[in-house]
Design goal:
Order of helices and strands: HEEEHHEEEEEHEHE
Helix content: 10-25%
Largest sheet: 10 strands, mixed
Strand content: 25-35%
Number of domains: 2
Shape: globular
Distance between the termini: 39 Å
Oligomer: single chain
């Protein structure tokens, strides 16, 4: 990390920065950096859409926007008037940004923006982790143990990815795993939670599965990232109980991936 910005989550910074195409170590509080990158024209591994614009406002006050080639100047003019993360949720802002981003997509023979997404990012490391141990939690590497009704197994993680589940009555009743993104998969757990079967809720199983995934990474020096909707109270509470802290708020303009 360069002098001037010290992050509590350097690995998560590298992970997010790689995917955004932004060197997060160069950010400064109170200033928004806009970067053009061809990554905003490409579908990421295991995602069915393009993040055509990716704006992250970090908990330390730094802000970065990743846009497709040709959209930088217009987006920069808009971004310089945005002074706080709450503005990312304004529909008018998304409408303004959509114009130059869709134009850049069209020049690259891509479909225009079709959705506006907002997320809350939380991060965890070994010092913050609070391990939960409810039920029979184990690493899930194949489909030998079936999922309970309403759940599905993350088969794209088998056999080499990282997934942990709580097993009860011969079924996986709660499961959490790390997304396979193709970026720093051995250092950063990009958490996904499939949830807990209805009959087994309120027993701490989701906390147990999540903390097992985080422990898997942090005991080897890694870190973890959890992304959820800003209004997902249950997910935020579960993350907090495991030790996650606020990392960033994001605005994403998505576009359909090329067929």
């Amino acid at each position: 990390m360069s002098a001037g910005r010290v992050s509590a989550f350097p690995l998560v910074d590298r992970y997010v920065g790689t995917r955004m195409g932004v060197d997060l170590s160069r950010l400064r509080p109170g200033r928004t950096v806009v970067v053009e990158t061809s990554r905003r024209l490409q579908r990421e591994q295991n995602y069915g859409y393009i993040r055509a614009l990716w704006w992250s406002w970090f908990a330390d006050g730094c802000s970065a926007v990743s846009v497709p080639p040709g959209a930088g100047e217009a987006v920069r003019e808009i971004a310089e008037n945005i002074t706080g993360p709450d503005r990312l949720f304004e529909p008018a802002l998304a409408g303004q940004l959509q114009v130059p981003v869709s134009a850049a997509l069209a020049r690259a023979s891509r479909a225009g923006v079709d959705r506006v997404l907002h997320d809350r990012h939380l991060a965890c490391n070994a010092e913050l982790l609070r391990r939960h141990r409810s039920g029979d939690c184990r690493r899930i590497v194949d489909e030998t143990i079936p999922p309970a009704e309403g759940l599905s197994l993350p088969t794209h993680c088998f056999p080499d990815g990282v997934a942990y589940g709580v097993v009860a009555d011969g079924k996986v009743v709660s499961i959490a795993y790390a997304h396979r993104t193709g970026v720093m998969e051995d250092r950063v757990a990009d958490l996904a939670v499939d949830g807990t079967a209805v009959a087994y809720r309120r027993r701490g199983y989701a906390k147990t599965a999540v903390s097992a995934v985080v422990e898997h990474f942090t005991r080897a020096g890694g870190e973890a990232l959890w992304v959820c909707r800003p209004d997902n109270v249950a997910a935020i509470a579960t993350a907090g109980s495991v030790g996650f802290l606020p990392y960033a708020l994001t605005l994403v303009l998505s576009a359909p991936a090329p067929v």
